[in-house]
Amino acid sequence: MDIEQVAIVFETATPFDTPRLTQELVDWLRYTRDKNPLHPLLIVAIFIVVFLEIHPLEDGNSHLSRILTTLLMMQLGYSYVPYSSLESIIEQNIAGYYLALRQTQSTIRTESPNWQPWLVFFLSSLCSQVKRLSEKVESEKLFTQHLPKLSADLMALAREQGRITTQIAEQNTGANRATIRAHLIKLVKDGRLEKHGAGRGTWYVTVGEK
């Protein structure tokens, strides 16, 4: 499938209509979240596809839509979202993404919008995201199950906070600094953590993250 041919059929809002349509979308989101007539995932899915149909920015709408997806889902209680990349899953099926957008967006301003193509794609992508995160968690469990408790705690802290320093580790574990440094050095040597910076500016992340 030619992705470019799929993408160019989108008809977005005119500059004149964009402010009004964007405000209507935000008002709909506020009302729907307050009254809660829809499942939270449907609220997010519909908001995103209409946002992309309005296309309020000259460039970067798709990237912003991923950020908005994460923000809305976290606000609605799906706290796992930042720990698994939805964007990478969409990129792996980019042709399906554009096709679902085209099929739904072409009907949004009609009397009978066809939400199904986009909802199926969006919810399927979320299922893939959850599955990938579950596999990652299981892998991490196997990866850390034979570590000393302090080392396992340091790994967990690095994942939770994105990065750790000796000072942060000391504050969160209660271990003394020399012992923490010894464990960090061993974790780096074993390929479990990556070291960045130097001296007091040294910080650590789990392998594969920056």
Please identify the structural class as seen in this structure.
mainly alpha
Describe the global form: elongated
CATH superfamily caption of the largest domain: Fido-like domain
Q: Which value, in Å, is the CA radius of gyration? A: 22 Å
The largest β sheet comes out as: 2 strands, antiparallel
Mean pLDDT, nearest integer?
87
Helix content: 55-70%
Counted beta strands:
2
Low-confidence spans: pLDDT under 50, at least 5 residues? Answer: 1-9
Give the N-to-C terminal Cα separation: 34 Å
CATH-assigned fold name of the largest domain: Fic-like fold
Number of helices: 10
CATH architecture of the largest domain: Orthogonal Bundle
| Strand and helix order | HHHHHHHHHHEE
Domain tally: 2
Strand order of the largest sheet: 1-2
Report on this model:
Strand 1 and strand 2 form a beta hairpin. The protein has two domains: 133 residues, Fido-like domain (Fic-like fold, Orthogonal Bundle); 61 residues, Winged helix-like DNA-binding domain superfamily/Winged helix DNA-binding domain (Arc Repressor Mutant, subunit A, Orthogonal Bundle), CATH 1.10.10. The chain has ten helices and two strands, in the order ααααααααααββ. It has a two-stranded antiparallel sheet with strand order 1-2. Helix 6 packs antiparallel against helix 7 and helix 8 crosses helix 10. The chain has 210 residues and is mainly alpha-helical. Helix content is 64%, strand content 4%.
